[in-house]
Amino acid sequence: MKGFLVAIGLIGALIGIFIIARPDSSPDLSGAGAEVSASSTETVITPAAGNGPVALSSDDVEKEFALQVADFEVETTRGTKVKLSDLAKDRPTMVGFWASWCPNCRRNLPVQNDLFSKYSDRVHIVEVNLNETRDKVDNYVDGKGFDFFVAYDEQGLVSRAWGVGYTNTHILIGNDGSLIDIHTGDVDDSIFQRLLGSS
């Protein structure tokens, strides 16, 4: 009996060590810059050193707003400029990263646009192009009728600041500036429900 209790105690100690030593694998995009380590099926985003949240507030906003990702301002295919912090303060916002050569993006963007038509009065979407020229972006977008913002990022400044190196990646941001989730893959109705659940 004594030997049995000793064996149980050793097993419990080993399990405890494993739990303590196990690294946290959940994505974190809380810094103003980030780096990506990824396999073909998983993207893990960790904050770059020395960067913290961007704190913004306004008298007409009921709750405190603190943007937990790097702020950016981009020009859109509509000829306007949009700033992430302004959009996110107004409504929960999804920032996607895409390219015209990406087959997953070509498949998902029209579906995403159809879904967006249901929620366009309650969420914002900015699809940031990954490093293509304006001509390529314009040629691809022309005639597609996308209702969300499509933005240029020819130098890859936004994707580098955020540590995003893969297309069809979507960052969900609450209207308090919080990072809700990092979603890799196609967008479906559940993603919009997650955005709306944060407001």
Write structural notes for this entry.
- The chain has 199 residues and is α+β, with helices and mostly antiparallel strands.
- It contains six helices and eleven strands.
- The chain is globular.
- The model is unreliable at 4-61 (pLDDT under 50).
How many β strands by DSSP?
Answer: 11
Summed over residues and divided by their number, the pLDDT gives a mean of: 77
* Rg from alpha-carbon coordinates: 20 Å
End-to-end Cα distance: 57 Å
Beta strand %: 15-25%
How are strands sequenced across the largest beta sheet? 9-8-7-10-11
Helix content: 25-40%
Sheet bearing the most strands, described? 5 strands, mixed
- Count every helix, treating DSSP H or I runs of 4 or more residues as helices: 6
Structural class: alpha+beta
Large-scale geometry: globular
Which spans of ≥5 residues are poorly predicted at pLDDT below 50? 4-61
What series of H and E elements makes up the topology? HEEEEEEHEHEHEHEEH
Summarize the helices and strands and which ones pair or pack.
Elements: H1 2-21, E1 34-38, E2 43-47, E3 54-56, E4 65-67, E5 73-75, E6 81-83, H2 84-90, E7 93-98, H3 103-119, E8 124-129, H4 134-141, E9 149-151, H5 157-162, E10 169-173, E11 179-184, H6 189-197
Parallel strand pairs: 7-8, 8-9
Antiparallel strand pairs: 1-2, 3-4, 5-6, 7-10, 10-11
Can you give keywords for this protein?
two-stranded antiparallel sheet, globular, 199 residues, alpha+beta, five-stranded mixed sheet, 24% strand
